[in-house]
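Q: Got a minute? One more chain.
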Amino acid sequence: MPRAVYLLAFGIFAMVTSEFSVAGLMPQMAVGLDATIPQIGYLITAFAVAMTVGGPFLTVAVAKWRPKPALMSLFAVFLLGNVLAATAGSYPVMLVARVITGVAAQAFFGVAISLAARLTAPHIRGRAIAVVLNGLMVGTLLGLPLCTLIGEHLGWRAAFWAVSALTILTALATLIGGPRLEQAADDGASFRDELQVFKNAKLWLVLCTSTLIIGATFSAFSYLSPILTQVTGVSADTVPLLLVAYGAATVVGNTVVGRLADRHTISVQVWGLALNLLFLTGFALLAHVSVPAVAFMLGIGLVGVTMNPAMGTRVQRIANARPLVNTVHSSFITLGVIIGSSVGGLAIDAYGLRAPLWLGAALAAIGLLCFLPEARRTRKPVPTGEEAAPADGVGVRQAGRTG
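A: Always. Here it is, folded:
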């Protein structure tokens, strides 16, 4: 695995740490910006919407640049957003800062995943994507607690300054320590070529499936704290420890899925969705019993967001590792976060705290249905001269079709 792949993971860790920081700093930021808690919550939504809508446009802007200048530019935009957040004197300024950082983060995700795929041989691309996305998992595990800790002791502005320092450190490490990045030069595809792939109906089905997988997970994850304290009966002091355990489960799951994603791309996602459906349903039914509730919660961590490497590998085989489609894929993933958290909140108002878990189970079930066309294709006879392969071994046949 090239060292540059780990540097890209470090960059994503910085981005995710900034993304999650607001969640742990809400009370302090509300006081400092003379805003309400719901208004601070909208900053999280603004970040996600900026990622979904703005990220692809910034990706197009840097698409034809060589890897290092493109990454340095994205780091610079991201740093600008965090410095603006650290110095924000009013809520509107903070809102602009979150939009800037969200757009930069999404573009970085797309470019980083594309570079990881280009830097590695086809048979380990799933593992490379998993390594890069471990930055996301470790951000979940460590980024939010660290920002919360800094905010509690040094103030919320210090947390954003810390992310700014982390961004500078990551950019310097990438500039100095990633010589192989320049070997991942653009494949020569024009912008029109990048757009052509979106005519593929299968790609849109894959993108929507990713939205459902992540939506199912975040409908539960977004409301773990109130569910655990008010339904399961866990003490508030214990919840942070359980969230750390959840984050550790995502790291383990991401590593395992990364090992399997290349050879078992489809079956990993099918089994992951099936298990997530089981865990979400079990959590909804037994949320009032502590031991099974915690077990099901950790199960969701193992098979939820950890499907990202398999999802990314599936997109690579259709779209040939191009930055724009990877950024759009990340936008669809973020859309899952928005749907899971926003619809889950509405469901709580209407049906109570278990409702997001049932919503997640429903989204997982719909996601499983999206794999039915894939199952039907695998039952058809393989044409003479084309190597037979199972549905989840599409690497040889499909990679050959897409170049």
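A: Confidence is low (pLDDT under 50) at residues 381-403.
Q: Perfect, thanks.
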